[in-house]
């Protein structure tokens, strides 16, 4: 029987019955995050401090906003100043800390640094550093945008200097700013062949053998500098299938050089396979980057991006089962005229003006209520996910629905609740995280899912 969106999940669209089973789940969920490239570079330079604080609260404060607790800090390469005009997109010109060989500029990247520290002040407790490209003077093409042909762009004699560059930045942040990056990734979508000179963002291709080389050198550099709090993560490929392909190609020494598998989930189908490989190798697994802009023209109320976001989160939590789920840019460039991101501001003017998008409220349906430390529970419905927070005694269910109204009855199973009602939150075409009350009868509750909506049910005082 075909369920919602035509999925064969054995459920009807009306009167579906789902039992929540605590044994069907996984522990170790660390939370939700965002990369700071490229918006941190922009927002951190705003002169309007009040507007800066508003943005920081909206993204990182658990009470006032999304409560994202994971940050990915981009160690910029820094473009060649002789390349004119600079082809990098607004915000994409992240300054590097080593503008030329032997010269360090620790005052660089002030904007992203401000955002990083402001996020941690608001409760962000896990930080990862990553690189999109080596500094321009280490590259073959002389540009951080990629090689002429999209191939390897790091000079042969610069593999050790590049590892030293990354780990020196990590050391500086620890010594000077008290920021201990838990992981460091020298790669970003490295097997992709679209990193070509003249690109609008930093990027670097690394073939399989070169990935292994830089991973091992980065791990060795961390050890030599006594940076024991920081481990290497890899490889951050664009799709889970590409990530799995690279991992299958790594030798044992390379595997022993990193502690965490990072994958993007823009594409690919082998989510369960990569999860099983991570378990087999004893590696933590992160979904370290995903973003979407839907299929409609620029519109802050766009629902196609909301549906794609909700479906991606639920699918990843059910099948990939990552310890962390990280969105690309929480803040996107309004001048790009697309529907990516939770908040839009014009990166070109930096006047502190911003607008919320519908995706912001869709993300809130998950991140505000499924908190770090929760046990993620998968259900017999690919459009729903649940989570139990034992510390808070809170059970949360999130469902998304694309077309037509749908009714689902959830059975709490062995969960015992102390309240006769739950809180319901919904984001739809006409609603933004609207709160209502939902009755619980005989340990079950029924939810009417509106078309084009994301619905969250939060039950307090729940025990097992």
From TrEMBL:
The cross-references to SUPFAM superfamilies, in alphabetical order and at most eight, read: (Trans)glycosidases
Tell me where in this chain the Endo-beta-1,6-galactanase-like domain is found.
18-233
Cited InterPro entries = 6GAL-like (IPR039514), 6GAL/EXGAL (IPR039743), GH (IPR017853), Glyco_hydro_b (IPR013780)
Q: Where are the transmembrane segments?
A: none
Q: What is this protein called?
A: Endo-beta-1,6-galactanase-like domain-containing protein
Species of provenance: Paenibacillus glycanilyticus
């Amino acid at each position: 029987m075909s369920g919602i969106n035509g999925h064969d999940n054995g459920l009807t669209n009306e009167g579906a019955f789902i039992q929540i089973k605590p044994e069907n789940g996984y522990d170790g969920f660390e939370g939700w995050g965002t990369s700071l490239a490229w918006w941190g570079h922009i927002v951190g330079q705003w002169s309007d401090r009040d507007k800066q604080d508003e943005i920081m609260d909206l993204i990182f404060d658990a009470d006032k906003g999304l409560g994202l607790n994971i940050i990915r800090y981009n160690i910029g390469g820094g473009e060649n100043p002789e390349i004119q005009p600079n082809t990098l997109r607004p915000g994409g010109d992240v300054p590097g800390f080593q503008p030329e060989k032997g010269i360090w500029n620790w005052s660089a990247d002030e904007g992203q640094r401000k955002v990083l520290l402001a996020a941690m002040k608001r409760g962000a407790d896990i930080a990862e550093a990553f690189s999109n490209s080596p500094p321009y003077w280490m590259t073959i093409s002389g540009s951080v945008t990629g090689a002429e042909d999209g191939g390897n762009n790091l000079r042969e004699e610069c593999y050790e200097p590049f590892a030293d560059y990354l780990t020196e930045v990590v050391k500086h942040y620890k010594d000077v700013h008290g920021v201990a990056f838990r992981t460091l990734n020298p790669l970003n979508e490295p097997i992709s062949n679209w990193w070509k000179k003249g690109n609008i963002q930093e990027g670097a291709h690394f073939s399989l053998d070169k990935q292994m080389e830089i991973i091992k050198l980065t791990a060795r550099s961390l050890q030599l500098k006594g940076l024991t709090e920081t481990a290497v993560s890899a490889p951050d490929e664009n799709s889970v299938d590409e990530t799995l392909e690279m991992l299958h190609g790594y030798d044992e020494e390379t595997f022993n050089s990193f502690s965490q598998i990072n994958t993007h989930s823009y594409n690919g189908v082998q989510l369960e396979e990569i999860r099983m490989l991570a378990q087999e190798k004893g590696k933590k697994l992160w979904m370290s980057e995903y973003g979407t802009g839907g299929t409609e023209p620029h519109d802050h109320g766009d629902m196609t991006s909301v549906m794609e976001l909700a479906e991606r989160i639920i699918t990843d939590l059910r099948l990939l089962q990552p310890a962390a789920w990280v969105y690309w840019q929480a803040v996107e460039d309004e001048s790009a005229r697309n529907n990516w991101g939770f908040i839009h501001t014009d990166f070109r003017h930096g006047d502190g003006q911003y607008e919320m998008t519908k995706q912001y409220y869709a993300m809130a349906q998950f991140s505000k209520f499924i908190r770090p430390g929760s046990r993620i529970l998968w259900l017999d419905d690919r459009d729903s996910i649940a989570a139990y927070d034992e510390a808070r005694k809170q059970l949360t269910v999130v469902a998304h629905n694309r077309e037509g109204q749908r009714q689902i009855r959830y059975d709490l199973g062995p969960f015992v609740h102390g309240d006769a009602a739950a809180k319901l939150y919904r984001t739809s075409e006409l609603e933004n995280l609207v709160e209502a009350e939902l009755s619980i009868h005989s340990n079950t509750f029924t939810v009417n899912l509106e078309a084009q909506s994301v619905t969250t049910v939060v039950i307090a005082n729940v025990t097992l």
